[in-house]
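User: quick one - fold this with zinc ion bound?
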Amino acid sequence: MNFTKTARKPALFSDKAYFFIFSDNNILVKEKSENLVSIPCIDKKSVAKIKVNEICFLGMVEKNCCYCAGVSQDRLPHQFKWINLRSLFGKIDNGFWSIAGYARQIYDWNMNFKFCGRCGAKTKKNKNEHARICPKCNLTSYPRISPAIITAVVKDNQILLARGIQFPNKKMFSVLAGFVEPGETLEECVKREIFEEVGIKVKNIHYFKSQSWPFPDSLMIGFTAAYESGEILIDTKEIAEAGWFKADNLPIIPGQQTLAGELIEWFVLNENEKLIFIK
Ligand SMILES: [Zn+2]
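Assistant: Sure. Structure tokens for the protein plus zinc ion:
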């Protein structure tokens, strides 16, 4: 599956188009089987039946156009259903999961930037790129991305995990994360966030990998780091509990589709390799 991102509609395209349609935190899907769904690839007639609004062109999957949109009615045609965007992972091809995240961010940005933040006039969509321009004062706004660091801190054979106050699952622990502040490097952010949240100083910060996280507009930037000094002292406004965990004694952790899950898996694999080496 090949997705080309573009705001410009090409001259040639198929009758049917992929529609990424949102309502609250849900996306509209077509049921294929019990655990599999697909993004609706529909013609103009079917689009009219669903009564979509706020349509925005996103790009092409092969010869099919892709759009994001909202809806203005609750009743859906047969075979369609709503599914929470987070739970779409694993029920759909990974390529479509990633376009769905992109579509969500473009949809939200179009909805949230209808008016100029400087003078309050109604903004207009630019036809050539994803940008909204104010006709009165010329302020241009682009889709917003909020960078956030996420770090696996390791001390000897243990990883630092914490339970955030706002985690929906009250038993789940994860690696520490936080938003980058203006004027800060990513490494400075890693040091500040970990010290603020759990009172630990870290060193040897290394880039791991990144992940787009459309809830609502984050770019998660993953790092690994080593413990330098300090005792765990949690910031009770953000963290409910924190501790050092061995690879064979982990609490409930995020799934492997998340960067947090991948960082914890990296720690576990490293630990296992060391065990094999010692044997
Ligand atoms: Zn303006």
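One thing worth noting: Residues 116, 118-119, 121, 134, 136-137, 139 surround zinc ion (CB under 6 Å).
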